[in-house]
Amino acid sequence: MALNKKIMGAGSPIVDLLVNIDDRFLDKIQAEKGGMVLVDSSGMDQLLAQVPESPSMAPGGSAGNTIFGIAKLGMEASFLGKLSDDENGRFYSGKLVELGGSDKAFHILPHAATGRCLSMVTPDSERTMRTDLGAAATLCVEDITDADFKSVDHVHIEGYLLYLEGVTEKILATAKKHGCTVSLDLATFELIRLKGDVLPQLLKDYVDIVFANEDEAAEFVGEKSPEEQADALYELCPVAAVKLGDKGCCLRDKTGTYRVAANVVKPVDTTAAGDLWAAGFLYGWLNNCPLETCGRFGSITAAEVVQVMGSQISDANWQRIKQELTV
Asked: How many angstroms separate the CA atoms of 196 and 253, rounded?
C-alpha cells in the first residue's frame, strides 16, 4: 500500500497520566468512580502529590490518539494544537517526532502547563479521570496559519474543538483552501446538543468523512437503525461512519451502505477504542481502499487497543497489525 499521504490532527494535545489506585483513594479525594471532572493546573498538581505511585505517561487526547495510531502505521503525521514549553509538552511533541512525524504545527504557549489527564484505575478496571486542559484550551483563530497546512493531504479534527470559538471553522476553511480532505469526529453527544445548529452546514461545506458513535448519531439524526443513521449523515457529507462498539460499524458512501463486524476480544479498557478505530479506517481510506476494507481496518485497530490499559499498543503488536492491514 502507498504510504505517501500526510495527515494532520487538530485538537487538544493532552498527556495521559495513568495510575493504579484503590476505592479508598477515590473516597479520600471525594471522587465519583467513572466520572471525568475538569480541574485547573493547581488542582492537578495537588492530586498528583497524593497519588500512591508515579503515573505512567503517554500522549493522548482524542485526535492525538488517532494521529499517533496513524503514525505507528507508517504514515507521516503532524498535529495542530497548543502545548507549553514544559516537560510534558516536550514529551508529547518528542513522541510524535520519534515516530517520523512533524512537530511544526504545534503552537507553544509559554508560562503555562501542557494539558494533562490523570486516569485513576481501580482493580475493577474502571477509570476515573481528572483533566487539566492547560495550554490546549487557549488555541485561538489567530494561531491557525497557512504554514500549518503546508504539504498536508488530510486533516482529522476532534469535535471538542467546537467549544473554542471560531477555531474549527478556521481550520476547516484553511484546509479547504489548501485542498485537504477532512474528517471530523463528533466527540460526544453533549457537544451535539450545544452545536447541533451549526454542524449540518459545516459538514456540507467542508467535511469528507464524519465519525459518530451510537449516542452521537442518535443525538444528531435521531433514534433510528444504524443504516438509517448512516444514510442521514451521508446526506451531509460524502462518507459516514457510525461506530457501534462490539457490534462493529455501519458505513455509507456513494457505493452503498455496509455493515462491518467487530473483532471480538475480551476488553480491558475501551477508552480509546473509537480514536484507534478512526486511525485504522483513515489508514485504509487514505490508501484508496474500498469502504468495507476501511471498516475492517478500523475493527482491527480498535480490537487491539481495548485489550490494553490506556491507548498504548505495544510496538510488537503494531508490527503485527501492519501486516494485517493489507488489501
From this structure: 22
Distance of CA 270 to the CA centre of its chain: 13
Pairing of strands 14-20, 56-60: antiparallel
Under the banding of pLDDT at 50, 70 and 90, the label for residue 69 is very high
Q: What are the structural domains, with CATH classification, of the chain?
A: 6-11+62-88+99-109+137-324 (3.40.1190.20)
pLDDT at 276 over 60: yes
| Alpha-helix residue ranges (DSSP H) falling in the chain | 23-28, 41-48, 62-72, 87-98, 167-177, 189-195, 199-206, 214-221, 226-234, 273-286, 291-305, 315-324
Contacts of 239 (CB under 8 A, 6+ apart): 208, 209, 210, 251, 252, 253, 285, 291
Closest among 149, 142, 116 to 131, alpha carbons compared: 116
- Closest C-alpha to 98, from 326, 320, 315, 321: 315
